[in-house]
């Protein structure tokens, strides 16, 4: 098991009791990340069809998916995200199948009115990129 900064999922910024919405789930996702978020929050992840406000968002993204779709997904996810809760795009790490070009997530985030942080290792095969709305705690 590789130790990462995200060993217990607190680094995502989610807290106990948070409802975290998961977008673009597929059978290639890292279930250990999902389990750690559920353990931390004490709540099951909810899917795209959940129709109430949520406290956090994770979006699974792979190369080959449409960049415009990512921008649209970010906008849709942000619309239900309460109080500027944490929003993350999770992508396969460079060299892994489905790893996107470094500029793809940044470009989609900007199209959606968001800033994308530097990718962080969240598991053996996945990186996480935190998104923030322009003007909300941005370092740029």
Automatic annotation (TrEMBL):
InterPro entries, A to Z: DUF3052
Protein name: DUF3052 domain-containing protein
Organism this protein belongs to: Bifidobacterium thermophilum RBL67
